[in-house]
Each structure stands twice: as structure tokens, then as C-alpha cells.
TrEMBL record:
Membrane topology, as annotated: Multi-pass membrane protein
PANTHER family membership: ABC TRANSPORTER PERMEASE PROTEIN MG189-RELATED, ABC TRANSPORTER PERMEASE PROTEIN MG189-RELATED-RELATED
Domain ABC transmembrane type-1: 72-261
Swiss-Prot/TrEMBL keywords: Cell membrane, Membrane, Transmembrane, Transmembrane helix, Transport
Location in or out of the cell: Cell membrane
InterPro entries reported in the protein's UniProt record: MetI-like, MetI-like_sf
Protein name (Swiss-Prot/TrEMBL): Melibiose/raffinose/stachyose import permease protein MelC
Family per similarity comment: Belongs to the binding-protein-dependent transport system permease family.
TM helices/strands, residue ranges: 12-34, 72-95, 107-129, 141-161, 182-207, 240-261
Length: 276
């Protein structure tokens, strides 16, 4: 009986912490997004006396010649291309690293783990991108996003693929399949659980990325959703109602994606850890 009471107490504490850490800040954003300029400047949790949902929404969307719509397009395009490249590169690298067993394997594992430990350097990255003509371009930013997500993705794929028997590879080779045919027709379809995990987690990170577009993809026409927050902030005046409405709009897509695919994330992470 005491164990049940203890378990119930832990669950209650966990729920209260969730409310405190996530739902109260989210409620704060929502209520201030519904207020007018004067009420939102108070920055409190009080419900607005009058709701200005459509007025704030219209003003945020039309601000700076519909910059938010361009930003949604840029962020969506960046996310889709980056995720596609990331999945293909990480899956192939994880397959080779899991199946390969020679003197170079420990060094490859070390380099991948180093990518999780060593922080990215802004200035050298700009220098490299500028040298190859990809600075201030979408392909250059895609390469940066892929490079940052590469170590995590490779480790997940490698751990998951350890549970796929080598007999599958041998049977495909006996049937005359090439290396690329083996990977794309047989191995890649088996990686759907971990692929779903990488799609959701990496999509949220790339879509909400602020630093990399700011440094590597500057320009008003290249703005991503997070950079539109500057539209309603200045040194002297901040339009809090419009700022919170902007935050609400750019938060909803990743939030909906995370809610609907939450079970797939857990399943992919668990499968990868167990099989690894």
C-alpha cells in the first residue's frame, strides 16, 4: 500500500512540474497574444478584458510586407530539405559503421562522438562556407543543419541496425543485389521507427533554429520564423501583444507535430537503445 501511495505522490509531483514548466508559460503567451498593446505591456497572467485575436493576427501576418509568410516558407523548405539529406546520410553512415569491423571503425566512432561533444564554431564555419561559395545561401545552411544533426542520427541508426541480422545482407547479395540495392530496397524500409524519431526531433530543432539562420543565412528575404521576432522588438518600444502572437504562431506547428508523433518518438528511441 505504501508503494502505491509513494508512486501516486511521484505522479502528482510530475504533473505539477509539467504544469509549472510548460503549461503556465504557454498560457502566459496565449493570454498576452489576445490582449491589446496597453494590457499586454503589464506582462501578467490576467485574462484580457477584450480579446483582440483577429486584429493581432492580421497585424502580425501583414507586418513588413508579409514577412512571416515568407519566413514560414523559408523554414519549411529548410526543414524538409535538411531532414531528407540528414536521413539518407545518417542511415548510410550508420549502416556502414554497424556492419564494418576493421581498424578504422574505432576512429569513425570517435569522430562521430566528437561531433556531440565539440561545440560548433561560427567564424570558421562562415570562412569555410564563404570559401566554397555557399555563405548566405540555403544549400549552405542545409549543410550546417545536417552537420549538426549528423552525430545524433548516426548513433540512433547504428544502434537500431544492430538488431537487423547480417543474414538479411547475405541473402540479398546471393540474390544478386548490389550494395545500394541492398540498402535502399531492404535495409532502409526496416528503419522506419528510428526514421520517424529523427524526422520529428530534428524537424522541431531545425524549424525552431535561431542562431544558424541568423549567422549563415542573413537578409530580410531569407528570414526564418524565429528571426521574425525582431519585427516587434526595438531598443525603446516592444509591442508585446504582437510579439506573443508571433511566438504563438511559430510555436503551434512544432507543438502539433510533437503531440501527434510523440508515441513514434518514444518507440524509435526505445527500439534503438534496446537493439543497440
Amino acid at each position: 500500500m505504501s508503494r502505491k501511495i509513494k508512486g501516486l505522490g511521484i505522479e502528482v509531483i510530475a504533473i505539477l512540474l509539467t504544469i509549472l514548466i510548460f503549461w503556465i508559460p504557454f498560457y502566459f503567451v496565449v493570454v498576452n497574444a489576445l490582449k491589446d498593446k496597453k494590457e499586454s505591456s503589464l506582462l501578467n497572467l490576467a485574462w484580457p478584458s477584450t480579446i483582440h485575436l483577429w486584429d493581432n493576427l492580421k497585424e502580425v501576418i501583414t507586418a513588413r510586407d508579409y514577412m512571416l509568410l515568407r519566413a514560414f516558407y523559408n523554414s519549411t523548405l529548410l526543414t524538409v530539405i535538411s531532414i531528407t539529406v540528414l536521413i539518407l546520410v545518417c542511415a548510410m553512415a550508420g549502416f556502414v559503421m554497424q556492419r564494418r569491423n576493421d581498424r578504422a571503425t574505432p576512429w569513425l566512432n570517435f569522430l562521430v562522438l566528437s561531433g556531440l561533444i565539440i561545440p560548433p564554431a561560427i567564424v570558421p564555419t562562415i570562412w569555410v562556407l564563404n570559401g566554397i561559395g555557399l555563405f548566405k545561401t540555403l544549400p549552405g545552411l542545409v549543410l550546417v543543419e545536417v552537420a549538426l544533426g549528423f552525430p545524433f542520427g548516426v548513433l540512433l541508426y547504428k544502434g537500431f541496425m544492430s538488431g537487423i541480422p547480417r543474414e538479411v545482407d547475405e541473402a540479398a547479395v546471393v540474390d544478386g543485389s548490389s550494395g545500394f540495392g541492398l540498402f535502399y530496397r531492404i535495409i532502409l524500409p526496416l528503419l522506419q521507427p528510428v526514421t520517424a524519431t529523427i524526422i520529428v526531433t530534428s524537424s522541431v530543432g531545425i524549424f525552431n533554429d535561431f542562431t544558424n539562420p541568423l549567422y549563415f543565412f542573413p537578409g530580410a528575404k531569407n528570414a526564418t520564423v524565429q528571426l521574425t521576432l525582431y519585427n516587434f522588438q526595438s531598443q525603446f518600444v516592444t509591442q508585446w501583444n504582437l510579439l506573443f502572437m508571433n511566438i504563438l504562431l511559430i510555436t503551434l506547428p512544432p507543438l502539433v507535430l510533437f503531440i501527434f508523433f510523440n508515441k513514434k518518438i518514444v518507440a524509435g528511441m526505445t527500439a534503438g537503445s534496446v537493439k543497440g
